[in-house]
Specification:
With 220 residues, this protein is α/β, with parallel strands linked by helices. It has helices spanning 6-18, 26-34, 66-76, 93-101, 112-124, 161-165, and strands spanning 55-58, 61-63, 83-87, 104-109, 130-134, 147-156, 167-179, 182-190, 196-204. The protein has a single domain (6-204), classed as Rossmann fold (3-Layer(aba) Sandwich). The protein has 6 helices and 9 strands; from the N terminus they run ααββαβαβαββαβββ. β6, α6 (161-165) and β7 form a beta-alpha-beta unit.
């Protein structure tokens, strides 16, 4: 059996999946090249680490497809002084991408075992600027705020107001909002204490954030 060349596979993922999806920010691309995605999946799925799919991580949760993670990173434009909140630690890969660019990442996960696995993976990569929290944050998490950036890694039918209020002025929030099959990846920027700008980035479908309240579909 020929051993997979992960460095080549990572480069091909960027050239064949990420760039064609209009991710061209050089900082984002460099970060994707730097962080070894294969180290954030279980051994039996390593050869699928760079595929354009969501990979299972347990508890009916999934690692986001690479192009979605790339779009998130490009959209929120993290600065090295930023305090970041991530809702849904999952595999820890997106956490690592965020931490590579930010001053501090506060990542919240509802499942203790997923959080512990992610902690071990980030330690192995010598990433130390992450605060791991085990909690239900479907309606927000203010304790380490206010935040420069908030990233919500699961979808929700509506965005709780608390998330917006936990942004600093100038802060950016990424969320996928809507009900299956119509969901929109949305970037919200806090313009002032009372004003927010909202931009639809693309349409997608993502599994719902755990514990989020789902609306029932309207029936005619």
């Amino acid at each position: 059996m020929i051993e997979m060349n992960f460095e080549t596979a990572r480069h091909n993922m960027i050239e064949q999946q990420i760039r064609p999806w209009n991710v061209i920010d050089p900082v984002t691309l460099e970060t994707l090249e730097t962080i070894p995605r294969e180290n954030f999946v279980v051994d039996e799925l390593k050869e699928s680490a760079f595929s354009d799919v969501e990979l299972p991580i347990g508890h009916n949760q999934y690692m986001l497809a690479p192009k979605i993670e790339a779009k998130i990173l490009q959209a929120v434009q993290i600065k090295e002084t930023d305090n970041v909140l991530e809702i849904g630690t999952g595999s820890g890969y997106l956490t690592a991408l965020l931490a590579h660019l930010a001053d501090q990442v506060n990542t919240v996960e509802i499942h203790a075992d997923l959080s512990e696995q992610a902690q071990a993976r980030l330690r192995a990569e010598s990433i130390e600027n992450v605060n791991f929290i085990i909690a239900d944050a479907a309606n927000g998490y203010s304790e380490a705020g206010p935040y420069d950036v908030i990233v919500i890694s699961g979808s929700m039918p509506e965005l709780p107001e608390r998330f917006k209020q936990d942004l600093k002025v100038g802060g950016r929030l990424f969320a996928v909002i809507g009900n299956d099959p119509i969901m929109e990846a949305t970037l919200i920027t806090r313009v002032s204490n009372t004003q927010f700008a909202e931009e639809t980035l693309f349409e997608t479908e993502l599994p719902a954030l755990e514990k989020v309240s789902l609306k029932e579909a309207f029936e005619f």
